[in-house]
Amino acid sequence: VFDSTGLLNLTQRPQRLGILGGGYIGVEFASMFANFGSQVTIFEAAPLFLPREDRDIADAIADILRDKGVELILNAKVQ
Q1: Residue 8: phi, psi to the nearest 5?
Q2: Chain centroid, CA 72 distance in Å
Q3: Distances (CA, A) of 20 to 56, 59
Q4: Tens of pLDDT along 21-49?
Q5: For 4-73, which CATH superfamily applies?
Q6: CA 32: distance to chain centroid?
Q7: Structural domain boundaries in the chain
Q8: CA neighbours within 13 Å on the CB side: how many for 29?
């Protein structure tokens, strides 16, 4: 388990990465690590991706992430 500082200090690329929360920081890390070649999954508790953003923008960002291979799981409950 890493926070954002820990992710920046990694010396090796993780093969797979799960990100809890689909806010802008999680989205930035998801995009970055997908570009590096990691398999990335975002787990978002809300029923919508980027729920505080304009729907058109959020949908466009979701499409870009999916094109990079990022999996988006909405309504996710982590226990």
Answers
A1: -70, -25
A2: 7
A3: 23, 19
A4: 988 999 999 999 999 999 999 999 999 99
A5: FAD/NAD(P)-binding domain (3.50.50.60)
A6: 9
A7: 4-73
A8: 25
Evaluate whether 34 touches 69 at the Cβ level (below 8 Å).
yes
64-77 pLDDT tens trace = 999 999 999 999 99
Amino acid type, 28: E
Q: Give the DSSP letter of residue 52.
A: T
Tell me how far CA of residue 54 lies from CA of 10, 20, 49, 51, 68, in angstroms.
33, 21, 10, 8, 21
Place of tokens 């999680």: 26
Strands 71-73 and 16-20: unpaired
Structure tokens at 49: 């991706």
Q: How far apart are CA 28 and CA 17, in angstroms?
A: 13
